[in-house]
Amino acid sequence: PVANATITPGPLSHLVHTGDPVTLRCSVQVGSAPVTFTWLHNGQEVARGPVLELGDVDVGHSGTYQCVATNQLGQDGHRVFQALSPELALEVTPQGHWKRAVATGVGGSVLFLVLLVGVVVGRHWWNNM
């Protein structure tokens, strides 16, 4: 029977940005061939095979992923064994959000400096009159 299904890359939570390519692989430590793999996203079947290519991810790819490894014993196939991997929590964050926040912070700092220089120059000019 199949046993010890795992997903790589680990760890059990994974943070990525929108547009990042993500590939998940499922393998088993124990189990005679043929072993089939089924991928679950938030408990729903999304693909079959040992590799899940998500491509350039977006926020909709966030959630939990698991793989189910299955094999059969005997020619009649009456004995079916399954191994469920631990859940991998994938969190996809918008890439542009952090960049916009930094740009806004830099823009605000520049505006503050311009106003500060204006006040200093204006005060200096006023005192010299």
TrEMBL record:
Gene3D superfamilies: Immunoglobulins
Statement: the UniProt record of this protein carries the keyword Transmembrane: yes
Pfam family, one: Ig_3
Gene Ontology cellular-component annotations: early endosome; external side of plasma membrane; extracellular exosome; recycling endosome
Transmembrane segments: 101-126
Source organism, top-level taxon: Eukaryota
CDD domains: Ig
Gene Ontology terms: biological process: B cell activation; negative regulation of B cell receptor signaling pathway; regulation of B cell proliferation
Domain annotation Ig-like: ranges: 1-85
Alphabetical UniProt keywords: Membrane, Transmembrane, Transmembrane helix
Record bears the keyword Transmembrane helix: yes
MF (Gene Ontology): CD4 receptor binding; protein phosphatase binding; sialic acid binding
Entries under PANTHER family matching the protein: B-CELL RECEPTOR CD22
Name of the featured protein: HMCN2 protein
